[in-house]
Task: structure prediction
Amino acid sequence: MEKSVKIRVPATSANCGPGFDCLGVACTMYNELSLTLKKEPGVEIQVEGEGAENIPTDERNLAWRSIQMLLRRVKADDTFRGAFIRMKNGVPLSRGLGSSAAAIVGALKAANVALGNPYDRRGLLQIATDLEGHPDNVAPAIYGGFTVSLVQDGVPESFSFLPRISLKMIVAIPDFPLSTKAARDALPANVPMKDAVFNVGRAAMLVGALAKGNEMFLRHAFEDALHQPYRAKLIPGMYEVFDAAREAGALGAAMSGAGPCIIAYATEHAEAIGDAMVETFRRHEVEARAVVLGVEERGAYIVKE
Ligand code: HSE
Result:
């Protein structure tokens, strides 16, 4: 009988303000992916939930391309030439919540389990980073928690920890998508030294304060000067939404990944913060909804084997 594997994988938010391309956090919002590898060529893909109308169900499908890469790396692509994939998506597409990382990691984890786990999580991180281009979303999707990542000579290194603060993440999800490419194209090739210094201090402070559970030092720790100022023009009212979140009681707010979602970090007042963010977006003629998420402790995991 052909073996079927079902994986649950969390949404992720990258950057967390100052940690451009290196910080990320797993969130309590999920995609599920079921995979049956087949010896016969051909892929059948069913998608329900977020993005069901837009996700290709043929050879272009990102989950299938990820599975094929893993099969090639373990030289099993001659044995398994086809697959049946079912995706149940809770993570909205092109909003800055790691939908592509979730597709990649869910697919890699499923294929890895189906093949008897030839890779450990570090091995999966390498393949996922090769596919995604940077590790900041795929790392928390694999490890869970809050992750710090770097890439040395093409090899990613990530570690994960759980914040010692009961952190809520209030995400305002606008009704328009923003491609990561467009958001990356908005960035300059070089940044002033003072902006680099601004971010180094805040990124270090953010990791230290979360790891130690020192809420007081988070007041400026979600600020950024490296990418958000250049991307603000892509998200109407962005800085006003940050201000509204803080005024309603958030510790800080930032773009989630490359946007357009805005994420506020708080320990209390989550509902009021969400309302304030949505209302401020509305004043800038952006329809948005707010969801309150927690930090997901687990990375991609098996639901059924
Ligand atoms: N670090 C990435 C960016 C996240 O901000 O462009 C999006 O994939």
Notes: The mean pLDDT is 97. Residues 168-294 form a domain with the Alpha-Beta Plaits fold (CATH 3.30.70.890). Residues 232 and 238 are 6 Å apart (CA to CA).
